[in-house]
Amino acid sequence: MKQIATDVAGNCACRKLRMATRKVTRMYDEAMRPVGITPTQFTLLSVVGGSNTVTLTELAELLSMERTTLSRNLKPLERDELISVSAEGYRRAKSVYLSDKGVSILSEALPLWRDAQTILKKQLGANIWNQLQSDLAEVDNII
Fold it and tell me: Whole-model pTM?
């Protein structure tokens, strides 16, 4: 049994990715704290803000999220009036829009995100940063 635990601890890609993700997320959590949003919320606001119109289904696909998870993550943004979700319309598709308040928060958060990116890149070094970006994109394309 000890050998199995050692093998999992040493070789499990899921475990290693989750550990690294938790550490990076903590850093971005701290960066976003002054504007009162999480890194996930920042990503959602960024993607919604970068689109004229995006449906819930499109947003879920863009972020590789299940619709139910996406809906749970959008509720606080809608409650805080950072986004609005349209009523069901054509083909019952709901669309998500950034509110004026959402645009303002996103504008405040963007420099904080850029600072966090710069710090992480400096901590990792340019070679590891570039390799990580490439490797993560490749994994996303393969899986």
Answer: 0.87
